[in-house]
Design goal:
Blueprint lengths: L1 H20 L20 E10 L3 E6 L2 E6 L5 E4 L2 E2 L10 E6 L9 E5 L7 E11 L4 E11 L2 E4 L4 E5 L5 E3 L2 E2 L2 H5 L5 E9 L2 E9 L3 E13 L4 E4 L2 E4 L5 E4 L2 E3 L9 E9 L2 E9 L12 E13 L2 E5 L7 E5 L2 E5 L3 E4 L5 E4 L4 E3 L18 H8 L7 E9 L2 E9 L13 E12 L4 E11 L4 E4 L3 E4 L4 E4 L2 E2 L13 E9 L2 E10 L1
Parallel strand pairs: 4-7, 12-15, 19-22, 28-31, 36-39
Antiparallel strand pairs: 1-2, 1-6, 2-3, 4-5, 6-7, 8-9, 8-14, 9-10, 9-11, 12-13, 14-15, 16-17, 16-21, 17-18, 19-20, 21-22, 23-24, 23-25, 23-30, 24-27, 25-26, 28-29, 30-31, 32-33, 32-38, 33-34, 33-35, 36-37, 38-39
Length: 505
């Protein structure tokens, strides 16, 4: 009898398991079946470690996690839809999903935009307030225009959350920093509600050295990179700032142009700070690339334009890594009704329909008489211009065309064009100018970007693109403060004229 009772009990326990094994697969988009959630209610937060066209990897409170980006994934920033190119490594993001189990992302929203790194300080640790979580440094310097510059304050007090504090390569705490009083520290800081906060701090240990140039080799496993033929050590405490975001040294890549601040101690070169900006002319996450060409408007076809040589001795050119490179083969770029075409001499926009041969346009609708006559007489054919082109798997799209005054002579050994990068500090709507800080000019003699003082750029003769979208001069207010810019200039007599302005935020 007892054996029979035990058998019945075991059978009762196993039946649910057996029946569970016979469940049919469920459709996740059916609200009446298991696995369905209200779209957007499952989410994940973290910092972007890597992001590519089809995948994003985050640093989360549980470690590194990967999720899939699909053609249905949307991207948001400041409450507006954006493209994937506007999401950077180091961004704090919120991922939302429409199903419980799938790793397909429904939406990626950039958060905490105010937490971008505002600058890098250096100073002696004066006081560590463990209770109020504050650190005071004295004799502070700020890194600006390629060098340490003294600030106007004798001491600076910064809020410290207690995370990302390092003594060299070793992680430490506020309590641990107390015994480092009197030592110098490097601090990457952000600002929130007018207060400076420590994003990452590393105590300086050794004699300061600076190296600038391209990374010729990098070994992530051993934490080592080579800059200017010098081997430098990377570690967990290294402050890596990329596009004003605090990132991991895994985000450094071979051929990146970097500035490295190093502590030389006992024969070891420990890197305390690495600073770099991505090149707006590199291939982007959506597998497109922005290129700038300089040449002649050789021929116009239906929805296409052909670029030709600058003159019989000089080929047309393309901008690569700050340098102009000659190109011999003819190329055609597709033109659309969204292409911005600008006559920089007249400071007038030209309707792109005038460059599409199959359309009949009533030129008498053009109010500017000079522009009307130029179009009527095919004035622009064979004229010199700058071509801003988006290149991708579907061809080469002409985003902007800036027709510039014709030069009778181009010197082959003298480069009258140069590039400038920086960030927008101020926009002046009255003068059609922008002020730039964090400015770097490309030195064509030694092929390096060199930090210079703040600069004002006049835009009367420029074509302006914000995230690939044309911006007319009467909408300069649309250019966000703090945005990255790439300017192409040309020396005309004693002044520099700006002909192309690319803006990214």
């Amino acid at each position: 009898m007892k054996k029979y009772v035990i058998f019945v009990l075991l059978l009762a326990l196993l039946l649910p398991v057996a029946s569970y094994g016979r469940y049919e697969p469920v459709e996740l988009d059916d609200p009446e079946r298991d696995g369905y959630i209200i779209p957007g209610t499952r989410y994940r937060q973290g910092e972007v470690l890597f992001i590519e066209k089809n995948e994003v990897e985050l640093n989360t409170n549980l470690g590194r996690e990967k999720y899939r980006i699909t053609e249905n994934t949307s991207f948001q920033k400041r409450g507006e839809l954006i493209g994937i190119n506007q999401i950077k490594e180091g961004d704090k993001v919120l991922l939302t999903f429409d199903t419980i189990y799938a790793s397909d992302i429904a939406n990626i929203k950039v958060e905490d935009e105010g937490q971008n790194i505002k600058g890098i300080l250096r100073g002696k640790i004066e006081l560590v307030d463990d209770r109020n979580k504050e650190i005071t440094i004295k004799n502070p310097y700020i890194y600006k225009e390629g060098k340490w510059q003294p600030t106007s304050k004798y001491t600076i007090k910064l809020k410290a959350a207690g995370k990302d504090l390092y003594n060299g390569s070793q992680k430490t705490t506020l309590q641990g920093l107390k015994i480092q009083k009197g030592k110098e520290a490097y601090i990457a800081y952000d600002e929130n509600l007018g207060r400076q906060n420590i994003a990452k701090l590393v105590v300086k240990n050794g004699l300061a050295q600076t190296y600038q140039g391209k990374i010729s080799n990098i070994l992530y496993t051993v934490g080592n990179m080579v800059v200017s033929t010098t081997s430098l050590d990377l570690h967990e405490g290294t402050i890596v700032v990329k596009d004003n975001r605090l990132v991991d040294y895994l985000n450094l890549n071979k051929y990146d142009d970097v500035l490295a601040l190093v502590d030389n101690s006992l024969g070891k070169k420990n890197t305390s700070i690495v600073s770099l900006d991505t090149n707006m002319m590199e291939e982007r996450k959506d597998d497109t690339k922005i290129s700038i060409y300089r040449g002649r408007l050789e021929d116009i076809f239906e929805y296409q334009i052909e670029i030709g040589r600058l003159n019989y001795r000089l080929d047309y050119q393309v901008l690569e890594d700050g340098k102009w490179k000659s190109v011999e083969d003819k190329q055609r770029f597709s033109i659309s009704e969204d292409t911005i075409i600008y006559d920089s001499e007249l400071k007038e926009n030209i309707d792109p329909l005038h460059f599409i041969s199959s359309r009949y346009i009533n030129i008498y609708q053009i109010k500017n008489l000079t522009l009307r006559n130029r179009i009527a007489n095919d004035y622009y054919k064979n004229k010199q211009a700058y071509f801003v082109v988006r290149e991708g798997e579907y061809g080469k799209e002409l985003l902007a065309l800036n027709l510039v005054p014709h030069r009778q002579v181009y010197y082959q050994n003298i480069n009258l064009n140069h590039s400038v990068i920086g960030e927008i500090k101020e926009v002046n709507l009255d003068d059609n100018t922008i002020s730039l800080n964090k400015v770097k000019n490309y030195n064509t003699l030694n092929n390096t970007w060199e930090s210079t003082s703040e600069e004002t750029v006049h835009l009367d003769k420029s074509v302006i693109l914000l995230n690939d979208i044309p911006v007319p001069l009467d909408r300069l207010y649309a250019l966000p403060i703090g945005s990255k810019v790439y300017v192409v200039k040309e020396k005309v007599s004693s002044t520099d004229e700006s002909y192309v302005l690319l803006v990214e935020n």
